[in-house]
Sequence to fold (258 residues):
Amino acid sequence: MPPPQTLKTSILVAVLIVLNSAGNFFFGLGMERIGAIHGWSIAALHSAFVAVFSSGWIWLGIVSMLLFLAAFMMVLSWADFTYVLPATASMYVVVPLLSHLVLGERVTGLRWMGVALICVGVAFVARTPPSTTEKG
Amino acid sequence: MRTAITLVVLIFAGTGGDIAVAHAMKRLGEVKSFTPGAILRFLGRALREGWMWIGIALLTLAFCSLLALLSWEAMSFVVPAMALSYVTGALGGKYLLGEKLTPLRWVGIGLVSVGVALVCLG
Fold:
């Protein structure tokens, strides 16, 4: 028996948030290790290309983002785009929370206010039905 | 002027790409089985959908616009400005995909847009 629509939507949205946050984290880590790209000559772009695609972190980011795209496509096969899109904004909550709790970074009041607004906004959207259209 | 034009291209290509992908997925129908074989078959069918490729082309254009914009504007300006895409996405969902947006969903999307902008500005 297939899982109920709300349950499977919630699970896949959670998967989307984890994969997107992980992808951005791996890309950030990879680019930080590669360093700034200087110049726009063919030689400079070639060496940047080689550096980027030789990085294991960048490949982890690419795999995370490909899995994110696959999960995004699957959830959109039944759920509204206007339901999924705001829900994925929860990743903007995950990063400041992790920065504060794990890395001990100082998070500004403005950022906490943004986090609170996103949480309330996502909670509002989550109270609406995941799908409002006829099935294709 | 070039910043405004690139930002408009970024937001509309990004939203258009997402809407095209969503439309392609709706045409395929709901995924009911989550076995690896069923997921691979679903992804294979998705890649034969014309709308999927239109979506990929638009998302690629949005990604290139983002990189171009970031080459001359600060991320602290670009990312909060991109929060506008939640609003264009809601309008696209309503008018292009025929989704029914209740007042509660509109308020939620509005709060998320403002929240994302604040997180990025903070």
Observations:
- Residues 120 and 126 of chain A are 10 Å apart (CA to CA).
- Chain A has a mean pLDDT of 82.
